[in-house]
Fold:
Amino acid sequence: MIFADGITLLCNDIQVDPQDIVMLVLSWHMKAGTMCEFSKKEFTEGLQSLGIDSLDKFREKIPSMRSELKDEQKFREIYNFAFGWAKEKGQKSLALDTAIGMWQLLFAEKQWPLVDHWCQFLQARHNKAISRDTWSQLLEFAKTVSSNLSDYDAEGAWPYLIDEFVDYLKENGVNQHGQINDSSLN
Structure:
């Protein structure tokens, strides 16, 4: 097994910050079961599938791994992978602080303008672990509903938490640019 210390050393060798999203993409390629861990099998098979057999090839592969996030289908796969990868072993849900960190990382790539408001909402009103259903549906929400909520369907099959988020945004005055009056959040 390679644990967090070993992954940090690997990151130093390939000149990548351990919190860089490319490490999530790498973990997806390796089919890693747990965050901050690689089994020998995951590591060797992952590197083989990527055609990596040296540190130089590893460094050369980083830009193409990063570019995979621009592909909608791969992004969806990586996003869905992240839920199982980031949750604690034996848990069905993802700890809220972990989910928030993952959303901030993932949606920084997709530039969803409401991600910070979503995270603030969760901390203020939910403060519980996140289910797989909410995790999956949030990506759909971010992709299909405009940031000003003009095309949001209250009768749609969204999880209750997303419905509550929309109500929260409306209560706090979302504008046509997806911005809300931050003074009303306090």
Summary: The two ends are 46 Å apart (CA to CA).
